[in-house]
Fold:
Amino acid sequence: MLGRHYGLPTRIVDWSWSPLVALYFAAQEDKNTPGIDGCIWALEPGRMNLQMMGDRRFLAADEPRVLDIAEIAFESSMDAFHAKTSVFVDKTFAVGTREIDPRVLVQQGAFTIHADGADLADLDYVYPRDPPPAPPWRRVFRVPSASKSWLLEVLGAVGIRKSSLFPDLGALAEDIKLRPMLSGP
Structure:
């Protein structure tokens, strides 16, 4: 899970318990596609896990289901890869995390691990034990492109900025360079 937090492609998507941290990331301008709206996905992990595995609890990173999905990525045989993946088609699990890294701690990180390329937005809601119309376990909120720079200013004013979410000297130096210079006496 730590590899994903540092940008390594994995079957893991990192999330934050903090809506402000999520807004910071949604308000970042993508250099490859500038001017595109951002979004914040909110999910209720217990309800998602109830649909995916019939159990509301968060999984630990070392539980068999999580390890089985993680091992699929390292399968060298395509036949074995497809056999293992078929067991978990359209499955995603919410996984609790240990704060073993400063980034995970300050970003209030949590993770989902995905068995395949299924998009959570495309999955139908199933209510194994909750009678409909139970509330959905996912929602999306649009962050208009025109509001991104203003949102980042407001977030910075309340302490949500790169150097607070990436607690290292490189991020601190970037933040200092972007701040307006104070005029002297």
Q: What stands out?
A: The mean pLDDT is 82. The first strand starts at residue 12 and ends at 16. The CA atoms of residues 51 and 135 lie 13 Å apart. The radius of gyration is 19 Å.
